[in-house]
């Protein structure tokens, strides 16, 4: 049976099934490019790791009603019916066979009045659910990062294929020119051999780039399932944005407070403290109020010469006090165990804070280095274009060697490939920075979609050909 979305306890489980409509829409519209947000919505429904995290949260949320039940009234009913057959002998009477029927039932209501263990168990369940929610938020951010990394891996591989194709085309043209020059006697045969060698090398690089695309596409489809829509790519004229604020200290401070891993460990520490209090409360007395109502009936008694049917009703009410005195040392052992877990949770919280700060520092440095690299490579592409143009003219005039043209072309396409990698890398580091700070959301993918443009090919498979 499909869970009903209007049930609060089932909303989380049912939320993923609504995404299937979008998945079908993307599958049947291969002419439209798929952007980051489209792929993320597919991953929300198809990624088994994220689905497992969703069900883990749904299971954890049931801890609160389970613990709350220990503070609420308990109503039970029991009854029974039996028949007794016996042979009885009384003074101066013959032996007789007798049969006695009896039935009884009791309805009992018990209300805990003072049970501190249950109170602390209820508090602990709230912290456990808070921890589960923080872990689910961490899983959401991890999914965004995995989707973005796989997406950027595919489009970067497509950019590499595009650069490899352009380089192969350029070396073919250079080989044809060197061949004509050798035939006309204006160029040496070594020029033709050098161009032919570079053309074969460019073809080999294109094959390697296609293999890399297949690997990257498999990594993406491992998360989202099979897709046929082409992927939008970063527009060449778009500048990678700077992080705001543009200093690392606020990001580090925020990550040490708001990172989901830190929040999860903070909730785990609170739950461990409640566990200590719960075990200490085992030394305290408990007090319950109960009321019961019952009926019983019997047709006779085999111990009496004469059968007398008996019917009765009873109502009982009262309080029950239980004072624990000694439990063989088990309570003290459980307290010691809970305190050790509390100290462990404190250490894990500090480790999570330090890790979050380190992640934020590393991601911010990655953005800064990426932006510097983009600037340098952009300048290298511009200079390489001029170098290729100049060497081609010089080769035609006979003042430059063919190897100079080939080296300039290789430098140009290598710089183009590295520039594309650097741009996507800087964008990914920006997502990692927000994830470290605990503010990464699907809206950040939507913001990146505004930087994307038409895909390189009609489909990913088309781009791999």
The portion of residues assigned to helices is 55-70%
Pattern of helices and strands: HHHHHEEHHEHHEEHHHEH
Number of helices, where a helix is a run of at least 4 consecutive DSSP H or I residues: 13
Span of the ends, CA to CA: 45 Å
Describe the global form: elongated
Q: How are strands sequenced across the largest beta sheet?
A: 1-2-4-5
Our Rg estimate from Cα atoms comes to 38 Å
Question: Main beta sheet: strand number and arrangement?
Answer: 4 strands, antiparallel
Counting DSSP E segments of at least 2 residues, the number of strands comes to 6
Poorly predicted regions: 1-6, 8-31, 458-465
The proportion of strand residues reads 5-15%
Kindly report the average pLDDT value: 86
Structural class: alpha+beta
Structural summary, described in words:
The chain is of the alpha+beta class. About 65% of the residues lie in helices and about 15% in strands. The protein has 13 helices and six strands. A four-stranded antiparallel sheet has the order 1-2-4-5, with no helix packed on it. A two-stranded antiparallel sheet has the order 3-6. A hairpin with a 7-residue loop joins strand 1 and strand 2. The longest helix has about 70 residues, at about 115-185. The protein is elongated and about 150 Å long. It starts with 10 loop residues before the first helix and ends with a helix.
